């Protein structure tokens, strides 16, 4: 019994070392800085105000579908924001798009997926998340048109408030800043010779420092640091603990256990993966080791289609989040949303797994 326990704990420790030793410095650390910068320097209010039912659809759904890159949150964190924008007069369609896209397009999770599970799957996750968020939002708006009618009536009776957004920096500064951060991430994890990589990262870091010194004040830099630290302390301990637990589970339930269910790209396998994703609660980033280790994607025991279906459904819905959504929008809207997520995650996984989606 003691030998089994020791072996299980060793499996958990090996899982942590396997995932984190190879990816912390080259992937997670730069990703945390990028996510912190997005949170600190991109104004959420300027984005959320475009979610009204009478905002042109390309604008409202376009912004909502990529909003997760700004927030870098999981499904549990997106729910109070979802409730807040509905109360402020958002249309049900853009709000639902935002609800799905928030955790699905999480910049940390997408980067981690690409680095650990493969670049193709990471890109497929990002592209599919944006497309599905828009499709699901449009479907919800079509099904519950009366909700938007009531929202517009309330908006017409409410006083309008004009707002302005000052541009304090040249427009090129922020894009250049993020491009340099992404450059650190890309070159730091590249297969180039380590001396060349170090030199490139050093130059990019100096360029970032120059932008911070000349174009950002001390409060902004401090805010960036605090946001980065806040994300790190919230996510990193859960990732370590969760990866350790995943390793223990993999000892008792090896990936071969799940191969009969997720080992091919059939419609049934993709549907089952989407349903499992809808039930399980997976904190952000933890879906990567779960799919890679527990279900065996990295060892070839899980097919690409079910992996994508689980990546799309898992972070966006879970039993706890479904209960909260029910309290916010009621039973009918919750049931419709969950059904749409499962159906479209299944379709996306089936299409990708069978080579019909060229990424």
From TrEMBL:
It comes from Methanoculleus oceani. InterPro entries: DUF318. Keywords: Cell membrane, Membrane, Transmembrane, Transmembrane helix. Belongs to the UPF0718 family. The keyword Transmembrane helix applies. It is found in: Cell membrane. This is Permease. One of its GO terms (cellular component) is plasma membrane. The keyword Thylakoid does not apply. It is a multi-pass membrane protein. The chain crosses the membrane at residues 20-42, 62-86, 98-117, 123-144, 172-190, 196-215, 235-255, 267-286, 307-329, 335-353. Pfam families: ArsP_1.
């Amino acid at each position: 019994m003691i030998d089994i326990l020791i072996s299980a704990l060793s499996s958990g420790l090996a899982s942590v070392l396997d995932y984190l030793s190879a990816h912390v410095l080259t992937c997670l650390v730069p990703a945390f800085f990028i996510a912190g910068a997005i949170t600190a320097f991109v104004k959420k209010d300027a984005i959320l105000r475009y979610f009204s039912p009478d905002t042109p659809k390309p604008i409202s759904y376009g912004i909502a579908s990529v909003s997760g890159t700004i927030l870098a949150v999981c499904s549990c964190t997106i729910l109070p924001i979802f409730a807040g924008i509905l109360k402020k007069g958002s249309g049900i369609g853009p709000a639902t798009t935002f609800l799905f896209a928030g955790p699905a397009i999480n910049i940390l999770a997408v980067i981690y997926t690409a680095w650990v599970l493969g670049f193709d799957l990471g890109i497929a996750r990002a592209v599919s998340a944006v497309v599905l968020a828009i499709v699901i939002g449009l479907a919800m708006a079509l099904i519950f048109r009366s909700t938007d009618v009531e929202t517009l009536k309330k908006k017409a009776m409410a006083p309008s408030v004009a707002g302005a957004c000052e541009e304090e920096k040249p427009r090129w500064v922020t894009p250049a800043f993020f491009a340099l951060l992404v450059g650190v991430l890309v070159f730091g994890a590249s297969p180039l010779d380590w001396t060349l990589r170090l030199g490139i990262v050093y130059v990019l870091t100096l360029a970032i420092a120059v932008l911070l010194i000349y174009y950002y004040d001390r409060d902004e830099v401090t805010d960036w640091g605090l946001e980065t630290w806040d994300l790190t302390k919230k996510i990193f301990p859960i990732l370590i603990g969760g990866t350790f637990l995943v390793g223990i589970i993999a000892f008792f339930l090896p990936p071969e256990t799940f191969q009969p269910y997720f080992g091919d790209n059939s419609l049934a396998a993709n549907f089952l993966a989407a349903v499992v994703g809808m039930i399980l609660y997976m904190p952000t980033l933890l879906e990567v080791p779960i799919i890679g280790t527990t279900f065996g994607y990295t060892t070839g025991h899980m097919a690409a289609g079910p992996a994508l279906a689980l990546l799309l459904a898992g972070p966006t819905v879970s039993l706890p989040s479904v209960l909260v959504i029910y309290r916010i929008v009621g039973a009918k809207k919750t049931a419709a949303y969950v059904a749409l997520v499962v159906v479209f995650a299944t379709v996306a996984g089936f299409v990708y797994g069978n080579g019909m989606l060229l990424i």
